[in-house]
Amino acid sequence: xxxxxxxxxxLAVIPVYNHASTLRQVAEQTLSQLADVLVVDDGSTDNxxxxxxxxxxxxxxxxxxxxxxxxxxxxxxxxxxxxxTHILTLDADGQHDPADLLLFLPLLAENPDAVxxxxxxxSCPNVPGASKFGRSxxxxxxxxxxxxxxxDVQSGFRAYPxxxxxxLHLRERRYSFEVEVLVKAAWAGFQLREVGISVHYxxxxxxxxxxxALHDNLLITxxxxxxxxxxxxxxxxxxxGRDETGAISALHPxxxxxxxxxxxxxxxxxxxxxxLGVFVGAFPILGFxxxxxxxxxxxxxxxxxxxxxxxxxxxxxxxxxICIEVGYFLRxxxxxxxxxxxxxxxxxxxxxxEWLLGAFVVGPTAGLVMALVVYALxxxxxxxxxxxxxx
Length: 391
What we know:
The protein has helices at about 20-30, 70-80, 100-110, 130-145, 160-165, 175-185, 215-230, 255-260, 265-280, 290-300, 305-310, 320-330, 340-345, 350-390, and strands spanning about 10-15, 35-40, 60, 85-90, 115-120, 160, 190-195. The chain is of the alpha/beta class and about 400 residues long. The protein has a 7-stranded mixed β-sheet with strand order 3-2-1-4-6-5-7, sandwiched between helices. The N and C termini lie close together (about 5 Å).
């Protein structure tokens, strides 16, 4: 018998800061889609909540402006206290179409633990050039930091599981919050998904935006620097709501594969990541193996932890020695049998060349063998995990 599907109780959330001219229309349209709507006034000075008189919406107010992230966290606290499972955030400036709220609900039913981002259709008129650049910029860094591909990281039209927001340790409180929450949710093992939405940009003279280009871009840059530095560390991230016992290590392959499969990896992606870890480890780039693997796994959407764990098998002297021997054989047609200060000292630059030459043979071969072994081990483990979840 399949487990009972969890009940989804969504709360539409409209963070607002000095949007009195557009707020009522957005709130009315949102009410026509969802019965429960919360407006969080983040310290507005235009008495914006007054325009909501007569509407059946919940309201909260910060006495001073604290930032969009702070407003979202306030709404998550309210949602948890009142039994809502998810909050769906949309902007108060009329940029988003509340009718698109219904597009999120089927995805929430499929995966209640996922954070879902609305991907804006930029084929509409009046799209600011800064928005196009900012979207591409943020998409790239999310991919480097997490390996996840999204097409609109900067979109504020989103669905958040309340439990995820309450579990993550989030430091940002302004616009940079929307980058931080995606990265840390992915690190914690939660899926990031997206759905296409429409968007409306008025003419520049009529546009309402409180994004401070210099200040907020500086905060986002500092955040990306910090998150990228953490992504470079060869340490696993804490997996929330999953089996957290043990560590990922090449010395404990079965236990490690179980943990990685529980974190939404597949046998195929783990095999590719492990093969990549050994392939890169064969090359003479001492001190840069970890950095190279973090960048490659991020760009390819593979498990950083699996790649770094497999790379542990390439620790000197064994892998370099094999590569040097193969490289020497390719150059001279015989194996290097004399190990002396002459061959490893004075001729070190020649051994480096032979190491590089041998790596082009040993790297792909060892990487393929590692990938096949990992796949053969992970496939039955995945089947066992799926059987356990069904029961």
